[in-house]
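re: that chain from earlier
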Amino acid sequence: MTRLLAITGFILFLSGCSGNWGWYVVNPTTKNGLSNLGFLLDGLYYTVLISLCAILISVVIGLLIALPGLSSKRRFRGINRTYVELVRAVPILVLILWVYYGLPQLAGISISVFWAGVLALALSDSAFEAEIFRAGIQSIDKGQYEAAHSISLNYTDTMRYVILPQAIRRILPALGNQLVYMLKMSSLVSIIGLQELTRRANELVVTEYRPLEIYTILVLEYLFLILIVSAGVRWLEKRMQTDVRH
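^ sequence. v structure.
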């Protein structure tokens, strides 16, 4: 938090060193500035919502894709490898455009801007989640599997009660990084019109013609948001480690 305040103070200091800065557009002491700030902050709802929905869906898909990659059968591992390589090869921006403009024509369905963004982000991230889960599950000692089999647990119960709880503790930092990554990549959904933080900033720049000041506020919004999320992930990681010790 001290570092964040120092960065904010430095930015404000720089603004005072130049007569070309027009902070009046986001000055909370004026009616117009307060209105502009409110307009920018309203985009926070969709940024957080689309990121959470996308990360939850991508975790589920990633886990389902990771399991065939652990199989001893080559064709199942091929399913995992093919999905991961194909999805990772497509840039997120291209996938967003394809899902929003191409999928409705291909499947004959109607999809909203929000769900197009969620689906594209989730699909893109699921390939990375699959690799994270696969590595986490493979890191668990084989003795854990043998112990589960010795008490007659089937494959599903072994994964659910023995392997996954241990794997999740190990991959939690990586999952937290993916959530931060998702928050940043959600800005790309602005290209199809979702009213999240970046879209709001772009629209305000068009009306106020002060890109430097408005995008500086946008940087600070993402900075605050991601630092809060990162702190929450670190707290959860410490909490899970404490529960294990007890």
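The chain has one domain: 2-245.
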